[in-house]
Amino acid sequence: MVWMFALLATATPYFETEQEGIRIRAEVAASRYTWTITNVSAPPVTGFAIDVHHTYDFIAPEGWDHTEPRPAGEFRAWARNRAGAIGQGRSAVFSARVNSRGAILGVGSGRIETADGATMSVAEVWRPVPESTRTRLI
Sheet of 91-98: strands edge to edge? Predict the structure, then answer.
């Protein structure tokens, strides 16, 4: 029984969604949000964006550039060239650290851009959202 509790207590919570050949897995561990983008069957992925709140220490894969919104805004990353794009069957990891106050786990849409110029909105992706006034008063 104790072993199962330890296993459950150490598992990293995550949420995964797939849409139009793109899978996004969002994980939260301590104060780090991580988004793993997997190209299942879409054209090469050249961009990823998601609104964030009270975040810093942004990380994008090698070969990608990114914005650093302060204190809130859109975390946006893009491949410097087609060689850095996420091709079919490949994955890439993006992450940001959230400040210790002012943001909580929430959901929102992420945005994926592909090499053919298409932009896709992916609903219900885990992300840091503003803490409500009601939550702060408790």
Answer: 14-19, 22-29, 32-39, 91-98, 55-59
Distances from the Cα of 96 to the Cαs of 43, 63, 123, 132, in angstroms?
A: 26, 17, 19, 21
Of 112, 55, 36, 34, nearest to 78 (Cα)?
112
pTM for the whole structure:
0.86
- Counted residue by residue, the chain has a size of 138
Distance CA 31, CA 91 (A): 22
Per residue in 43-61, pLDDT (tens digit) is 999 999 999 998 999 999 9
* Buried/exposed 51-76: b ≥16 CB within 10 Å, e otherwise: bbbbbeebebbeebebeebeebeebb
Q: Is 38 helix (H, G, I), strand (E, B) or coil?
A: strand
Q: How many CA atoms lie within 13 A of 49 on its CB side?
A: 13
